[in-house]
């Protein structure tokens, strides 16, 4: 069973600075996967030109901490081909996922075995 840390939806917006705090919290909890509600993403996070998403994800990847963003971003994905491609490629792997809800997260984890 994967040990998860569920980030509070009302915590500070996730960006390159607060990512370190969240990583520290995850290490302290001995989590393998950090689940972040999309409400927690900083302004510009899903705008790939800001590089916020890439830098945050890189921090988590460097420390081998898996990351799942949970919530509805369909409108944003539909409006941006680059974001759509990014989400698609992320979801093909095992390190970073963008999922609609907790049920999708649980199904994804169950599929891993």
Overview of this protein structure:
The structure is a single chain. By secondary structure, the chain is α/β, with parallel strands linked by helices. The chain has one domain (4-112). The chain contains five helices and four strands, in the order βαβαβααβα. Strands 1-2-3-4 form a four-stranded parallel sheet. Helix 1 (18-28) links the parallel strand 1 and strand 2. The longest helix has 12 residues, at 81-92. The radius of gyration is 13 Å and the shape is globular. The N and C termini lie close together (9 Å).
Describe the secondary structure blueprint for this structure.
Elements: E1 4-6, H1 18-28, E2 33-37, H2 52-62, E3 66-70, H3 74-79, H4 81-92, E4 96-99, H5 102-112
Parallel strand pairs: 1-2, 2-3, 3-4
- Helix share, percent: 40-55%
| Secondary-structure element series | EHEHEHHEH
Number of helices: 5
**Whole-number average pLDDT?**
96
Termini Cα gap: 9 Å
* Largest sheet composition: 4 strands, parallel
Q: Taking strands numbered 1, 2, ... along the chain, how are they ordered across the largest sheet?
A: 1-2-3-4
Q: What overall form do the CA principal axes indicate?
A: globular
Strand content: 15-25%
Instruction: Tell me the count of domains.
Output: 1
Task: Give me the secondary-structure category.
Answer: alpha/beta
Domain DUF4180: 7-109
Protein name: DUF4180 domain-containing protein
């Amino acid at each position: 069973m994967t040990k998860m840390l569920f980030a509070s939806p009302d915590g500070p917006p996730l960006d390159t600075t607060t990512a370190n705090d969240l990583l520290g919290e995850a290490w302290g909890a001995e989590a393998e996967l950090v689940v972040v509600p999309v409400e927690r993403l900083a302004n510009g996070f899903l705008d790939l030109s800001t590089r916020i998403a890439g830098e945050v994800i890189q921090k988590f990847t460097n420390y081998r901490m898996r990351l799942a963003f949970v919530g509805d971003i369909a409108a944003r994905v539909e409006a941006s081909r680059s974001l759509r491609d990014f989400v698609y490629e992320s979801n093909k792997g095992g390190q970073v996922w963008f999922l609609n809800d907790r049920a999708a997260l649980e199904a994804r984890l169950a599929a891993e075995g």
